Description:
The protein is mainly β. The protein has strands at 5-10, 14-15, 20-34, 39-46, 53-58, 68-73, 82-91, 93-109.
Amino acid sequence: AKELIEAKLVTGQLDLGQxxxxxxxxxxxxxxxxxxxxxxxxxxxxxxxxxKQTYTYNLPTEPSxxxxxxxxxxxxxxxGRHFAFxxxxxxxxxxxxxxxxxxxxxxxRV
Length: 110
């Protein structure tokens, strides 16, 4: 019988804005994830308000037994300079080959 495995990857606070405020729009992934009850979610944490706020987004379930590309769209309200990401996956087999964060500059300076 195949076993369900859960994995978590957590980054530190990344300076995505490099001195500017940015809106993270989403994450683009190249990944594999197989299993009958597979799940892939990305948490985005920001401390822009002075307290830590984390928002969780799910990758839409799609055929991904072999390397494929996926996209997770974030909520519109995210804004800041530093963000941390937490990826949680569960399934029988999982592999992340590439991850990039899509963002756009805001009109405001820090």
